[in-house]
Q: What sequence folds into this?
């Protein structure tokens, strides 16, 4: 798995260089910045003398194919800092990158034909191996993702090893457009966004029902082993200096003044949970202590990256923090991985991938503590008997982590859950427990989330189910449709009986013909349509119609209640 990912990353990285080479050939005065790979492809950020337009992309893509066919060998070169500065003397972005490289580190270039770019690698052997790609978009960006820096233009693309993989991906993208959660969210009356609060969703009644059902489900799984807490949304800045968030995460935080004191709107829940742990002394006999919190957090995201429920500024996390001894750490990680598998299976996610992310450049704590934490995660993965991807340098600033990725019905991977081992924050907050020898020890802290962002998980579910939620999760499980108004009284009586049995049912009050009522129920993606006509009224029965057109006739209320119970057992 690691080898395949590395090969695909190399291909996409090479495609990004090919893009940069094509742009320079067509627009020689363009300034290059950086061009990394992404989960599905690659991008390169440019500063052109004249902004690119969408109609430029086919021309650039054509030039990329022409260059690829020349089969330039991709060659690694090492040069001095002085040589690099001369080579990129007219590029302020490359000069900034060169200045940031330590003097004792070699500067590497990768060259193909007359084109060279600063790069650490890796790549394919020659441009002829870059065959199956497509440019997918043009967007605005900023140098180093900072809105205070130079505005740039980003060209994005995808690349695969075969034409079939490329075609399958493009087909999936077209299918995903049909079931975009933003479109379905409006159609199904689940949520909305408004200019008064960019990136902060407004949940409607039906959307909130699903949101609360997600919370209720995970609470039902953890209530026996976890204690649930709730911490304030706004806390004094001193807390965030202690946790390290202020120094490592400040650009993503919101601030407010209270009584002339600077306070922070929490971007994460962990510091508040640490204060709760510290409220009283703890013995080793109490550990592990598992504290869960459905925490409401705010993080500043650039307006250009906001995307429905997938990228928001205000969201809820199904957070939890486990405080344990070093000896308990691996077993606790395994328990969390098992919990994640149970949760994801409930929603039909069977293909779960895992990635281990190690120490990033921007981090806190000693190398020894990071090594201990990383080994604990590796051992837990090994004992859990799962393959995993190694993502060097992509851990959180306070500890390494396991990212949990699910695959939806359209074959797309989504990173949702995370398990992070943290030796640093317990030290910073002076957490302790009394060990069996009466000595004071610092507990290990494990951060975990299964859904991750509940808002994002809901967006994933909307597209995964294509708006047709399973029976247990559907806000409205059934709608009663009447062929004529004569059946209205019978319909109201039936509705009350079914509501008493626990069915979430409503009555169509439109007065439309039965064909129109059925069409609307299908557009609303309801699991059941209960059709009442003269015959059903006379026999005190109902016709059950499913979304695929299948029907069951002559069902009694008791028959329906039996079906309800069977559906809820799934």
A:
């Amino acid at each position: 798995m690691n080898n395949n990912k590395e090969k695909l990353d190399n291909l996409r990285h090479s495609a990004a260089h090919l893009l940069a080479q094509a742009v320079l050939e067509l627009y020689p005065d363009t300034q290059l910045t950086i061009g990394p790979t992404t989960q599905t492809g690659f991008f390169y950020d440019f500063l052109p003398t004249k902004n690119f337009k969408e109609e430029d992309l086919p021309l650039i893509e054509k030039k990329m194919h022409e260059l690829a066919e020349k089969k330039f060998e991709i060659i690694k070169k090492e040069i001095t800092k002085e040589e690099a500065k001369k080579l990129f003397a007219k590029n302020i972005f490359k000069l900034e990158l060169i200045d940031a490289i330590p003097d004792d580190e070699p500067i590497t270039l990768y060259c193909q034909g007359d084109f060279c770019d600063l790069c650490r690698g890796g790549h394919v052997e020659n441009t002829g191996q870059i065959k199956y790609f497509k440019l997918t978009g043009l967007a605005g960006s900023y140098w180093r993702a900072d809105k205070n820096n130079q505005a740039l233009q980003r060209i994005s693309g995808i690349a695969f090893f075969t034409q079939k993989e490329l075609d399958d991906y493009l087909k999936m993208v077209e299918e995903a457009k049909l079931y975009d959660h933003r479109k379905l969210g409006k159609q199904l009356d689940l949520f909305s966004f408004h200019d008064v609060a960019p990136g902060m969703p407004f949940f409607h009644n039906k959307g909130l029902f699903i949101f609360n059902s997600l919370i209720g489900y995970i609470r039902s799984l953890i209530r026996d082993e976890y204690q649930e807490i709730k911490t304030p949304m706004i806390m004094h800045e001193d807390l965030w200096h202690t946790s390290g968030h202020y120094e490592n995460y400040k650009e993503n935080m919101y601030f407010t003044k209270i009584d002339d004191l600077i306070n922070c709107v929490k971007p994460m829940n962990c510091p508040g949970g640490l204060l709760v742990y510290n409220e009283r002394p703890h013995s080793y006999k109490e550990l592990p202590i598992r504290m869960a919190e459905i925490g409401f957090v705010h993080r500043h995201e650039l307006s250009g990256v906001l995307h429905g429920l997938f990228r928001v500024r205000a969201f809820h996390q199904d957070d939890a923090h486990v405080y344990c001894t070093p000896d308990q750490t691996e077993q606790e990680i395994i328990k969390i991985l098992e919990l994640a598998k149970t949760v994801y299976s409930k929603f039909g996610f069977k293909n779960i991938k895992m990635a281990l992310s190690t120490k990033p450049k921007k981090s806190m704590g000693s190398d020894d503590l990071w090594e201990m934490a990383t080994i604990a995660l590796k051992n837990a993965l090994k004992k859990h008997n799962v393959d995993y991807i190694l993502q060097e340098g992509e851990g959180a600033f306070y500890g390494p982590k396991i990212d949990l990725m699910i695959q939806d019905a359209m074959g797309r991977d989504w990173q949702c859950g995370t398990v992070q081992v943290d030796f640093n924050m317990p030290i910073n907050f002076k957490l302790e427990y009394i060990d069996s020898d009466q000595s004071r020890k610092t507990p290990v802290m494990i951060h975990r989330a299964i859904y991750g962002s509940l808002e994002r998980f809901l967006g994933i579910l909307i597209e995964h189910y294509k708006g047709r939620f399973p029976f247990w999760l559907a806000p409205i499980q059934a709608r009663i449709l009447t062929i004529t108004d004569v059946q209205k009284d019978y319909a109201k009586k039936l509705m009350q009986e079914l509501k008493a049995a626990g069915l979430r049912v409503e009555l169509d009050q439109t007065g439309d013909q039965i064909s129109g009522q059925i069409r609307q129920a299908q557009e609303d993606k309801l699991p059941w349509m209960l059709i009442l006509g003269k015959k059903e009224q006379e026999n005190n029965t109902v016709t059950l119609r499913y979304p695929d057109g299948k029907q069951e006739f002559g069902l009694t209320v008791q028959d329906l209640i039996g079906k309800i119970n069977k559906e809820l057992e799934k």
Remarks:
- The longest strand covers residues 132-142.
- The longest helix spans residues 2-26.
- Residues 236 and 263 are 4 Å apart (CA to CA).
- The chain has three domains: 2-170, 212-464, 478-569.
